[in-house]
Backbone:
């Protein structure tokens, strides 16, 4: 039976990279003007290569029902978390026009990218990591369709926002796997994919740590946001995700992904959406900063309790 110390030892490297990013920002080794260039390389080149390398050869993705269920749960669970966030936001006193939509979307949407990827890779198999990437298509779809509508109050969806490097990489990988052509991608080209993608997640975590350091100083924290976002992101949303992992008839690898997703802090993307669509970026920043900080303590417990309840056993070091 795994212990809290086992889980903490497994996930601690992720938080150490985030802390390293904070230190690099405070010591001015990585400056704000570096962020966009670094993340552009990571998001358009390194991360797609990393994802494609992990998807190729994944037997679990040869099942159509597994792929469909992963995308569907990514979409509907993220929306479920957002609607929980909206309900709690209204309960604690937010109103339309005063930050309710920003609070609801940010506190309800889990980090499904650079923080989740290394944790899934550390705790589970490569098959679970491949499932995470497919699951993330559903998350991207929810964020850039319904999430944009929530934040902006608009009624029109601009689908071209989904045409990004990671989504294209996953779709190409699924196509190759489904036709059995993934074995053809081998030799020097396959090794070069692994080499290009190897640094994607660590480099992104350093930049996220830098961004977090900037956000800490951006706005004075309010107790209402701290308590409300902690309730949504670290209690209610995890209960939703773990219940889905426990009771739905899904693949084991998808259950493993949902356990990690249950423990994730708030995603950073709603900050971008708040800036683009007239939301309240300061509220989104507070939610991200405090749920990320508190998740250092809550995350091991959520993963531990989730594994014991569902009957999973991580492959910890």
Residues:
């Amino acid at each position: 039976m795994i212990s809290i110390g086992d889980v903490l030892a497994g996930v601690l490297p992720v938080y150490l990279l985030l802390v390293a990013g904070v230190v690099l920002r405070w010591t001015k080794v990585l400056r704000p003007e570096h962020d966009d260039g670094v993340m552009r390389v990571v998001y358009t080149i390194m991360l797609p290569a990393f994802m494609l390398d992990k998807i190729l050869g994944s037997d679990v993705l040869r099942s159509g029902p597994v792929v469909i269920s992963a995308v569907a749960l990514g979409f509907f669970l993220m929306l479920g978390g957002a609607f929980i966030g909206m309900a709690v936001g209204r309960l604690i006193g937010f109103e339309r026009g005063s930050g309710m939509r920003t609070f609801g979307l940010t506190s309800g949407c889990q980090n499904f990218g650079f923080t989740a990827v290394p944790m899934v890779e550390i705790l589970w198999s490569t098959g679970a990591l491949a499932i995470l990437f497919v699951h993330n298509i559903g998350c991207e779809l929810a964020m850039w369709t319904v999430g944009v509508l929530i934040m902006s109050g608009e009624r029109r969806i601009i689908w071209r926002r989904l045409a990004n490097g990671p989504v294209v990489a996953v779709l190409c990988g699924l196509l190759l796997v489904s036709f059995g052509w993934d074995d053809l991608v081998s030799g020097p080209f396959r090794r070069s994919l692994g080499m290009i993608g190897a640094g994607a997640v660590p480099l992104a975590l350093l930049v996220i740590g830098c961004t977090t350091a900037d956000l800490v100083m951006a706005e004075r924290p309010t107790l209402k946001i701290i308590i409300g976002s902690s309730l949504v992101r670290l209690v209610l949303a995890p209960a939703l995700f773990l219940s889905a992992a426990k009771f739905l008839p899904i693949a084991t690898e998808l259950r493993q992904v949902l356990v990690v997703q249950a423990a994730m802090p708030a995603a950073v993307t709603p900050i971008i959406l708040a800036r683009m669509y007239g939301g309240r970026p300061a509220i989104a920043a507070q939610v991200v900063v405090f749920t990320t900080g508190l998740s250092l303590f809550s995350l091991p417990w959520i993963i531990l309790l989730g594994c014991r309840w569902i009957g999973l056993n991580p492959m910890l070091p």
